[in-house]
Amino acid sequence: MASSDSPAVKAAAAGHARQLNIGGNNFGPVYMAEYAPARRKVPADNTLPLPAHFEPRQELFEAAKGALLDRGGSGTARKIGLVGMGGAGKSVLARALALDLQVRRTFRDGIRWVYLSEQADPHARLIELAGAFGDNRLAADSQHRLSNLNELLARASCLVILDDVWNIDQLREFELTGPKSALLITTRNQNILDRSVTIREVKTLPAESAHRLLAACAEQDASRPFQEAAQEVERQCDGLPLALVETFFFPILLANLALIVVLRASEEAGLILLAGLVIVAANVGLARYAWRRFGGQFLHRVDSL
């Protein structure tokens, strides 16, 4: 029989024992490795810097920031959803919010990103999040781990950013309850957000902003030849910031733009220009396909829109 001073007995008395049941087989109590409460710490800030060619959208930024800083009277962590199609700039807007001085002062106990995707394991991400805040205790399941984390952060002012959420099951892993904390969610699917979430829609860039972004990426001025060539690219990209920037990962497109500028002045510009535009459109189509296919993982590895 175990001594009253044994770790197992102390764990059971403290409520840190859980029955382990796998496939209907009961393996008895599992005792937590740490019996004392976890000590909260400020996590390392894993916010990426803004891209070099950041195109601010002040009205949208202020609307999202206002919702983020408004505690209201819900008594639980507020939730803000940035919703828009892939490549619209949701994650970059979230970065701008996370880097804002007023936001950082408000959430003085830590800002932490959780990078998700369609294939991400939300429980593994929850373990990483808990560890970042200083909670490395074992837990019987996700619900137990989330309960421990909420207990740890009950009086803290924290901002957790759930980036690229795909489904409701992923959201359920991160239901923070601390009234001073907030969840900032980026997703393409508004249907996964319930009525407790304040939604801010991230639309495509207006024509003027799209042109500035494209010109900055191409390191071109607003000359007429460039404008005429760029307008077709902007039209094909449909105002998507990521598509406008990602297009320039294809070196051949730079040659296409130069070709268009040269051919505009040539006598045979008609058919050859059309061929050049077809090549540009093909490149943009490839960029947009690459985003749809690989964008969720790509966005977290490349410092671009």
Description:
- The protein has 12 helices and 7 strands.
- With about 300 residues, it is of the alpha/beta class.
- The chain folds into 3 domains: about 1-35, no CATH class; about 60-200, P-loop containing nucleotide triphosphate hydrolases (Rossmann fold), CATH 3.40.50; about 205-300, no CATH class.
- The protein has a 5-stranded parallel beta sheet with strand order 4-5-6-3-7, sandwiched between helices.
- Helix 8 (about 205-220) crosses helix 9 (about 225-235), helix 9 (about 225-235) packs across helix 12 and helix 11 (about 250-265) packs antiparallel against helix 12.
- The longest helix has 30 residues, at about 270-300.
- Residues about 1-15, about 240-250 and about 295-305 have low confidence and may be disordered.
